[in-house]
Amino acid sequence: MSDPNGTGGGTGAAAPPATRTLEVPVHGMTCGACALKIGGALRKAPGVTEAAVNFATERARVVYDPARTGPTELLGRVRALGYRPGTDVVRLAVRGMTCASCLARVEAALAAAPGVVHAEVNLATETALAEVVAGGATPAELAAAVGKVGYTAEAVDEERGAEREERVRQAEVRDLAWKTGVAALISAAVMDLAMGAHVAAALGCAPGRPATGLLAQLLLAALAQFWCGARFYRGAWFALRRGSSDMNTLVAGGTSVAWLYSAWVALGLLAAGDEGAAHAHHNAASALYFDSAAMIIAFVLLGRFLEARAKRRTSEAVRRLAALAPATARVVRGEGEAEVPLAEVRPGDVVVVRPGERIAVDGVVVEGASAVDESMLTGESVPVDKEPGANVFGGAVNGAGAFRFEARAVGRGTLLANIIRLVEEAQGARAPVQRLADRVAGVFVPFVLAAGALTFVVWVAARWEAPDAWAAAVRAAVAVLVVACPCALGLATPTAIQVGTGRGAELGILIKGGEALERLERVTLVAFDKTGTLTRGEFAVQAVVPVGSFPEDAVLRLAAAAESQSEHPLGRAVVRACGGRGLTVPPAGAFKALVGSGVECVFDGARILVGGRRVLERAGLAADAEAERVATLELEGATVLHVVRDGAVIGLIGLVDTVKAGARETVARLAGRGSAVALLTGDRRSAAEAVARGVGIADAEVRAGLLPAEKAGAIGEWQKAGRVVAMVGDGINDAPALAQADVGIALGSGSAVALEAAPVVLVGGEVAAVPRALALGAATMRVIRQNLAWAFGYNLVLIPIAAGALYPGFGISLPPMAAAAAMALSSVSVVANSLRLRRAG
After folding, report:
1. Is 74 helix (H, G, I), strand (E, B) or coil?
2. 206 in Cβ contact with 278 (< 8 Å)
3. For 731-756, what is each residue's pLDDT tens digit?
4. Backbone phi, then psi, for 324, in 5-degree steps?
5. Which of 114, 414, 461, 487 is the most exposed place for a label (fewest CB within 10 A)?
6. From 3, 246, 291, 529, the catalytic residue
7. Which residues are CB-contacts of 198 (< 8 A; sequence separation ≥ 6)?
8. CA–CA distance, 293 with 233 (Å, rounded to integer)
9. Tens digits of residue pLDDT in 415-454
10. Would residue 3 show up in a list of annotated catalytic residues for this protein?
11. Sheet containing 20-27: which strands, arranged edge to edge?
């Protein structure tokens, strides 16, 4: 197999050196025409010199110019057509990352691995997601690639991954708490010793055994520097081996300068004995920065500790979802019931659910009835009635009834597992708005190191004649190195995306990544499909119009008798309406389904026909019989059935697709936020306009009689006019429009193709969640911008102050300890701001 990075050998003629070859399985093709369609779409991509799709082997081979296109765009074209490229997503837990520079290095290492189509690394969750072509690098090989650039990585077992990661995070928090506490105690002790020397110097008296005090400061500061701060040296060493630098470089470099300078001064004084040390206390106590070095280590560790705790809170939504699955299930075994671990439940098992219990896996009710709370999965608070034939989902809570269901999906196949997977993948993605931060992070640390060196040189040159020139220069340079905070830049976007997508999952809104969040905020027009989206896709009788002497109920009973054996949705609606009026459905004989026309039966010796206009022809009647009444019903959006008895029309029945509860309120809320609302449908215009009027959509924004490609074309026209379009749909015929839209929003009750094509999924299948999705996108992007503004503003303001920009005119400087405290709080403030999104929507 040839991998996307050109590391493997392809079949056939060798590609020119400037090109690469991508070979990937393609699933979902049903005939040779599918292969031709995919090949044509791939050949239209810029930079593609050859594209061949083999229907028999279900594989695609593309030769392309990597300077003009890449695997992500090519596979996106395949997905846009409704087919599934054969790729796997590998999730890795990555340890040792501290800033955005680390993130970029891990991404580069993964992207260079054989078969990797796309790689994204999330600093907030400490995870990496790699999309790998089938047959490409294994999880172990990906982890090894990360290990080669100095970080620790291991593949996450999705079955137990959340529990394992939580244990690792808890251990990290405990270690940071322990090291922070020790560093704080050491800092207090060193400061006490240093302050004692200052007090003695101020009083003009010599402290007892000054050499012992100096030695104690040196040794205690060394313990804080090299034991409590060991993690910074390890990180800096790995970065140095790679020929780069990161946050650890700044902390280790800044504190090392302070400690080494102080150690050099202290050792010189100690060499002179107590007399030299006492002289130092009177004249040069301020030249020692043991207390500053120790306090910097303590502050930075405190910041890491608070940051780690806050980052754990950003993952609460996923942990709460994972906790929904019960540990065991009660399964029918032979003549009795047995409680088994969840992992042992298999498709086909009959699972027993008692009142108040959580449902273990997905399935279909076979016995009993109850009301089930699915709010944690769908965001809808109203319990859903379940009876035989109804679907149930793992993680939902049973109400007062009891029932049994047949397991259909278990393990990774359940709705709950898929929700968790989608949320985790979304949290690993980055929004386009983060690109600026990524570019800045790439040069940030080298810039700060250069700024620190320049600060030192300028201070020495400016105060050359002063006795404290070197000490002042060291203090300013250390402050510059320590105050700089690339962590805030690296956390600004991923923490907000993590909390925002987690909150979305709690509301029943699955958002597949940061790009979708960013586009949700910019939506100016929301286009809805009609059938199954704004309407229930379930017909109801709107009107029964008698013709001649037959009463209304008699027309309905005769129609129901003819339709009683029909499986057509319109026929079932007629039978339901008859029962709803308390009428009995009389038995009929000689039933016959008339393909494309309607149904026929014999009742009480009379021949009954029920159907559209074609049954009129079959009965020997004019096609325009009762044309005025039919036109009136159709103007109201109804589908009209003719009821014919022995060659005469005795009545008309108008049926409409019922509008979903809350559809009108949803349109009003969208209009209230300034979004235009449109309706796209393949149905006839009269039916479309009737639904539009019912929900409050202007006729001017209704487009009817559209084929799937024409729906996508309508969205394209709006986009050319400068509108940012969100498309809401549920069916296979909506997939092209969902892919064309700036944001595709699929109802969770819809087809698998629609769910695949849309970056946003409403799990509950209710359009009322659309305004919430837009509001969540806007809130998340607002927080991201606040975080980035803070991260950039903090560094732009405090780095010059730490360098001494305000000292000549105002005498204001930033001591190294204050710089460390500011740096520690800067990244924590970004995470804390992101956590506000837990109340969004």
Report:
1. helix
2. yes
3. 656 777 888 889 988 887 544 544 56
4. -70, -30
5. 461
6. 529
7. 285, 286
8. 14
9. 888 777 766 666 555 566 666 666 676 677 788 888 889 9
10. no
11. 48-54, 59-64, 20-27, 84-85
